[in-house]
Amino acid sequence: MKPFLCAAIFLYALIGCSCGPSANAPNSAGNSAGVSAGNSNGNSAPATGNLRLAFVTNNASDYWTIARKGVEKADGELADVSVEFKLPGEGTAAEQKRIIDDLISTGIQGIAISPVDPDNQTQLINDTAKKALVITQDSDAPNSDRSLYIGTDNVAAGRQAGELVKEALPNGGKIMVFVGKSDARNAAERYQGLKEALQGSKVEIIDIRTDDTDRARAKTNAADTLVKYSDVAALVGLWSYNGPAILNAVKDANKVGQVKIICFDEEDETLAGVKEGAIFATVVQQPFEFGYQSVKLMAQILKGDKSAIPANKQINVPTLVIKQNSVEEFTRKINQLRGRS
């Protein structure tokens, strides 16, 4: 088992969880790129000399601070690799395209990207994959020519959130769901998993509200829901900033405890809300692993070793459920990753 391929190595080790089976089954098809002309048949020569890689996020959320730590750790372990970390401030597909075009023009050899709009960015990824190795992380584009995906199984994470909703609402009730963009693949898959987990239960999903990654609008969406649906029993946020937005709206409406909150990721306000009992639970990903494994794998593949690419071209990093009884220890460990200890 290659050590960096074991999901949740670093954070799981800190929290005391054991590592699951390796997903690095060999892939004889070898859908990867070489130095000068990445192509789907993987016939280009292995890279030699210093490798130039890039890690491109889908927005500028604090969530990516942890991924950056993983990138930096892998970068530090590989003497022949240099990595650029790119944060699109606007969080748009157009901005991601500008970033990728700039990277390609400077001769970058490998890019790990979290696509904002995978379906409409398929051609961009395909064009980029002709010139460099491309992998997706955090959000996948499975219909593209990307070599593999590293990140969360978002359908499974959505089911996890659905189970938490049922636990928070044992007698059922109405819920509203919130996310930045409902057509982003990770959002769509989490929503799918949520609905699957709630099938046959007494929980009713009213609707899903989007905010286009606008935090002010995210809070307004939650506040409007609390006014329009006075009997809403829980609010579910699928993206990292939705948790704080929902929390603040619920506090402003004086409905803490009355309206349950289930959300994703580990923003400071989210963890504080879990600690004080205002948020029932949050499902956390492990973005450190997205950064760490992306860099390690790109370097390995570009050097000619494609054995780490699974047959299904997906490497899933498990999610964790954080509740009030585990939030203090998790916060301490996550702050170490953020460099706050």
Major sheet strand order:
2-1-3-4-5-11
What's the rounded overall pLDDT mean? Answer: 87
State the shape.
elongated
Overall radius of gyration: 20 Å
| Percentage of β-strand residues | 15-25%
Gist?
The chain is an alpha/beta fold and 341 residues long. The protein has helices at residues 9-15, 63-77, 93-105, 122-129, 154-168, 185-198, 215-228, 242-252, 268-276, 287-302, 327-337; strands at 51-56, 81-86, 110-113, 133-137, 149-151, 173-179, 203-210, 232-237, 260-264, 281-284, 314-316, 320-322.
Description:
The chain is α/β, with parallel strands linked by helices. It is built from 11 helices and 12 strands. The strands form 2 sheets. It has a 6-stranded parallel β-sheet, with helices on both faces. The chain has a 6-stranded mixed β-sheet with strand order 7-6-8-9-10-12, sandwiched between helices. β8, α8 (242-252) and β9 form a beta-alpha-beta unit. α2 (63-77) packs parallel to α10 and α5 (154-168) packs across α6. The longest helix has 16 residues, at 287-302. The two termini are 31 Å apart.
